[in-house]
Amino acid sequence: MTKEEKTINDFLCKLTEAQTYMIDELARLVQSEIRDFSEKIAILKEFITSVRSECLMDGHYFTFHSLPDLIVKKKYKRQQYQVISKLLVNIRSAYLESKLQPEPSSVEDPKNTKEEQERAASGVITEEDMVDVSFLDEQVSLVEKKFRDK
Description:
Layout: H1 3-14, H2 17-54, E1 61-62, H3 67-74, H4 78-100, H5 114-122, E2 131-132, H6 134-149
Antiparallel strand pairs: 1-2
Helix pairs in contact: 2-4, 2-6, 4-5, 4-6
């Protein structure tokens, strides 16, 4: 038995029954959090797959105005809708933030005109706003990172 194993064993021997119960309860709570998180990620990934298969235009973009129809069509439950709506709020914020920053013009990206920047500053998204699908992946990655850090 190594020194570390002996230390852990001595510690466990000193625990009372109540403390052991608390450790078991804590382990149960951690497992519950992990299960809930796994369910959320599964919902988000399924939603992203649906967006990619049904809402993409020009291969890389979607509009926010096409998403309510998708959500209704897929008949998401209330809990699933709440998870998806939190993701969409974060994507909307990130998209508007990116529209406020002037980007060098690129052949692939739609032009970021002054008018679009003014609309973004006011928080308005129109049917012409084409959101890069990478915003979906980035936001899910952020959710996963926050959970790992937690």
